[in-house]
Amino acid sequence: MRLLLVEDDDRIAGPLMEGLDRYGFAVDHVRSGTSALSAAAADLVLLDLGLPDMDGIDVCRALRARSAVPIIMITARGEETDRVVGLEVGADDYLSKPFGVRELVARIRAVTRRTHPERHAPKSTGTVTTGMAVQGAPHAQLPEERGIQRIGPLTIDRRTRGVTIDSRPLTLTPKEFDLLVQLASDPGAVHSRQQILDAVWDPNYFGPTRTLDVHVSALRRKLGDPAWIATVRGIGFRLTVPDAGTYT
User: What 3-state class would DSSP assign to 93?
Assistant: First the structure.
């Protein structure tokens, strides 16, 4: 997959291109809006808003007027108005700095699934899977439960990024889901703060570490019981199942 990165700051562009390369993306880099508009066609555009020659909003509007190429805005502007304007002029997603390569890759894949669903259509393997029959097709069956994990009343579906407690769906942000998946990768084990930051935010993450505590607090609240995530003082966190009947 070929990406077009529109970013005038080489201190950001360099590490970003290296990180994306590790995930198998080919990246073309330009430093101005004018260069972006004259660049070769790409599969997806990563567009900074603070460009030296023109506003990224205008670049997005111009790209959208002539192409349906997916566009993810990456910018230090984090105000809601900026996000709304960006999305209204045609951006498919909006990512505020600072961020890690891992999160950006997840956004790229999510946008690609939405804009090019045919690239992610399941392929028939000819094998029989277990599950419920699909209505209207008595011999067809749902895909096997690969990627689904159950921990007490908690169910995590990595394939759909869905989470339920006692069949009640939870609405998690991408980071909250990734944090839960990391803790659930070894339930009961202690995950150090650095392990979590490396896995969920990326080893190249350069934001404040306090953000981990904020996300843990939000995730506890959404799970309905703070006992789901135990703090191991001075080390990190671990996922535990609360006593029956204590969660809501």
Answer: strand
Concatenate the DSSP letters of all residues of 3-64 into one string: EEEE-S-HHHHHHHHHHHHHTT-EEEEE-SHHHHHHSPP-SEEEE-SB-SSSBHHHHHHHHH
| Model pTM score | 0.51
CA distance 232 to 222: 20
Q: Do 157 and 54 have their domain in common? A: no
Considering the domain architecture, whether residues 22 and 105 belong to the same structural domain is answered as: yes
> Could you give the CA distance from residue 183 to residue 193 in angstroms, rounded to a whole number?
11
Instruction: Report the alpha-carbon distance of residue 16 to residue 106 in Å, rounded.
Output: 14
Q: Is 83 helix (H, G, I), strand (E, B) or coil?
A: helix
Whether 40 and 105 share a structural domain: yes
Q: Which two tokens stand for residue 170?
A: 């939870």
Instruction: Please identify which residue in the block is written with the tokens 């970003």.
Output: 16
User: pLDDT per residue over 111-148, tens digit each?
Assistant: 888 776 555 444 444 433 333 333 333 333 333 345 78
Between the alpha carbon of residue 72 and those of residues 4, 141, 220, 228, the distances in Å are 10, 36, 30, 34
Please name the residue that has the structure tokens 């990165």.
5
Domain membership flag for residue 27: yes
